Amino acid sequence: MMSWFFGKTPSSSSQIPATTPLQQQRIKQIKSLSNHNQNVTEIKRDKIYKVTFLNSNSKTFALNIHLPPEFPNEKPYITLSPKSFHPWVDSTTDEIRGCMALNSFYMHSDLGKVVQQIIKEMKKTSPVIKKVESPTSSLPYNKSPETNLTPPIFAMPKRIPQDTGDPDLDKLLGDLGEKSNSELEQICNDPDILIDQIESMESVKKLQTDRIKCIEENEAIAKSSLDLEPVIDDLKGDLKETFETYNELFYSCQDKIQKQNELSQFYETGNILTNLRISVMQSEEESENIAEDFLKGNLKLDDFLNNFIEKRKETHLRRVKEERIKCLVPY
């Protein structure tokens, strides 16, 4: 009535709190469950769901899916009903334990696809329903000592499908599946019976033969290795001597290479040419000194001729050598 004074009152829909990201993911997972699977029944809203399916023998089974409060951060709890034997099912709690996708379930997993995968496996390997043995007496079950009755137990099925890939092992498991509880109890009390049956399997015999063969081969290899040990020691000694000789030759070669480099630099064409030029200049200077001494009267004619001619000859020879070496030196 006084809304014009106090303003508009919020509607009832606006008072509903917004869904959290976890709730949104939870709703998304539940929708995926319905989209990927048929016969989905809601037992308890947002908490428990049931998916029924037919196996290969047209028997009806159901997966009971329990969603914990922290789902999908926490993986769902899925059980199979009725109580059955299956490699993926825990025989005590009937919980699905063998599905890797379920065991590694996290926020971004797809619940619908996980359940679809479980159903596919159940159709591929059909569960064996547990049978309840009826009491021999018509009296109701009573724990009192007077009745001396035992509670009903689940009997193992006579045949559990086995496909291990080993015919002998499949036959052994099949034989065990055919035995009665008393026979199985006898085997449990006397394990030698089962051990004898296992050792009589052809695959086990072959395994034992291969093991003995491997042992013999290893012994032969070890013996051969021991026989070769003296030869290896001798070869090690020869290798050590060869290595020492190599080191001596290596250092000797290094010294010779160094000397060769020094001599190469000393007898380099450019150095020889320079030395020849210097010697030519020295010879010319000496010949000029002889001529000056003769002009000054310090030398006799015969001495002058002998010394001057010899020195000029030496000068010309050196100049000729210089000219020839010039042809070898690149400009």
TrEMBL record:
It comes from the Eukaryota. Signal peptide: none annotated. GO terms for biological process: protein targeting to membrane; protein targeting to vacuole; ubiquitin-dependent protein catabolic process via the multivesicular body sorting pathway. The keyword Magnesium does not apply. This is VPS37 C-terminal domain-containing protein. Gene3D superfamilies: Helix hairpin bin, Ubiquitin Conjugating Enzyme. Residues 9-21 have a biased composition (Polar residues). Pfam families: Mod_r (PF07200). InterPro entries: ESCRT_assembly_dom, Helix_hairpin_bin_sf, Mod_r, UBQ-conjugating_enzyme/RWD. It comes from Clytia hemisphaerica. One of its GO terms (cellular component) is ESCRT I complex. Belongs to the VPS37 family. It is found in: Late endosome membrane.
